[in-house]
Every structure is written in C-alpha cells, then in structure tokens.
Amino acid sequence: MVNFADDALVNDQLRDYWGKTAIRGWAERDIVGERLTIEVTEVSKHYDNFIVIADIDGNFDRRGLPDPLVLAFYFTLHNDLIIQLIILRNRRDI
C-alpha cells in the first residue's frame, strides 16, 4: 500500500489540498461522503508517474457531466510515497 507524504498535494476539481490533514478531509467529504465507486479501466506508467483512468459512479450531482464520468488520476511518487495526485476529467477516444 502506498501512502501520502506529509506534505503531499492533491488537486481535484481545480482545488488544492496540501498535507495529510487536508487530504484526509477531502477524501472523507468527496470520496467517502459521496459514496464513490471507482472502476479502474487503465493503468500506465510514465517515468516516475502513474496514470490511472477510471469510470466514476456514486451519489453526486451529475448535472452537466458525461455518462460514464471518466477521470484520470495522475500520481507522482517519491520514496514510495504519493507526493502529488492530480485528478482531471478525461474523455475516451473512440
């Protein structure tokens, strides 16, 4: 299991969450609180970064969002810890 570094950054929906306390609050509110399910469809490595593509479902306001909602999670690791996670809405190429 990989954990976040003490001074890690998560950027989700163009908002920054710095450090474990802020990241824990974000996860409890936006992941657990929205009862998200994340179905991973692709994982790739690019140098020291990992990119996870996933279909997202849960109890959140879907107005204006595509179905399925596809997000890309860009993880940067250092010394076996996540130091940065950037989450972006993604489109599937058909």
Structure explained in plain terms:
With 94 residues, the protein is mostly beta strands. It has one domain: Nuclear Transport Factor 2, Chain: A, CATH 3.10.450.50. It has one helix and six strands, in the order E-E-H-E-E-E-E. It has a six-stranded mixed sheet. A hairpin with a 2-residue loop joins strand 3 and strand 4.
Q: Could you tell me the strand content as a percent range? A: over 45%
Distance between the termini: 33 Å
Strand order of the largest sheet: 2-1-6-5-4-3
- Poorly predicted runs: none
In the CATH scheme, the class would be Alpha Beta
Report the strand count: 6
Gross morphology: globular
**Sheet with the most strands, sense and barrel status:** 6 strands, mixed
- Computed Rg: 13 Å
What's the CATH architecture name?
A: Roll
Total count of helical runs of at least 4 residues = 1
CATH topology, which one? Nuclear Transport Factor 2, Chain: A
Q: How helical, in percent, are the residues?
A: 10-25%
Structural class: mainly beta
> What is the H/E string?
EEHEEEE
Structural domain tally: 1
Mean pLDDT: 91
Summarize the structure.
By secondary structure, this protein is mainly β.
Structure keywords:
Nuclear Transport Factor 2, Chain: A; 6 strands; globular; mainly beta; 55% strand; 94 residues; six-stranded mixed β-sheet
Topology:
Elements: E1 3-12, E2 15-18, H1 19-32, E3 37-46, E4 49-57, E5 69-78, E6 81-89
Parallel strand pairs: 1-6
Antiparallel strand pairs: 1-2, 3-4, 4-5, 5-6
